[in-house]
Amino acid sequence: MKKISIILLVLLSMLAGCQTAQKNILDSDGESQVKKRAMQTRYYDTVDKKETLQTIIATLQDLGFVMDKASYDMGSVSATKLDGYRIRMTVVATPRGGSQMTIRANAQYNIEPITDPVIYQQFFDALSKAMFLTAHTEE
Questions:
Q1: Is residue 13 part of a domain?
Q2: 126 C-beta neighbours (distance < 10 Å), count
Q3: Number of domains the chain contains
Q4: By residue range, what is the domain housing residue 124?
C-alpha cells in the first residue's frame, strides 16, 4: 500500500509539473512570438515574385551581404555578412492574396537568433526604398 501511495504521489507531482511548465511556455512565448513575427515581416504591393526576389538580393548585397543560396521556387534567399562578426539572414517572399507579397526576414548572429529590431528595420528600410524605385523605374 505504501508503494502505491508513493508511486501515485510521484505521478501526480510529475503531471502537475508538466502542466505548469506547459502553461508558462505558452503564456510567455506566445506574445513574444507575435512581436518577433511583426518585427520580421512586411507586406508589399506587388505580385511579381521574380522581381521581388531580385530586389531582395540586390538589397542584401547593398548592405554588405554575400549570397549563399537563392531559390525562386521556394521564394527564399540566404546571405551572410562577415564584417568582424557573422550575421546570416534568410528572407522569404510569399504571395499574400492577389495583390501583395509577404516578406519575412530571419537574422542570426552565429547560431543565435537576432531579436534586436534595428537589424530588421535597416533591412526593411533599404528594401522599401529599392521596391519603390523598382516599381517606379519600369513605368
A1: no
A2: 15
A3: 1
A4: 40-137
d(Cα 58, Cα 62) in Å, to the nearest integer? 6
- What cell numbers appear for 93 in the block? 517572399
Give the pLDDT confidence score for residue 51 in this predicted structure: 94
**Position of cell 504591393?**
45
Q: Provide the 8-state DSSP code for 45.
A: S
Whether 94 contacts 102, CB under 8 Å = yes
C-alpha 15/C-alpha 25 separation (Å) is: 15
In the numeric block, which cell numbers belong to residue 85? 562578426
Is 23 inside any structural domain?
A: no
| Closest to 122 measured CA to CA, from 54, 58, 32, 59 | 59
The CATH number of the domain holding residue 121 is 3.30.310.80
> pLDDT 10s digit of each residue in the chain, 139 long?
666 666 656 555 665 554 444 444 444 566 688 888 999 999 999 999 999 999 999 999 999 999 999 999 999 999 999 877 799 999 999 999 989 999 999 999 988 999 999 999 999 999 999 999 888 775 5
101 occurs within a structural domain: yes
6 within domain boundaries: no
- Give the amino acid at 23: K
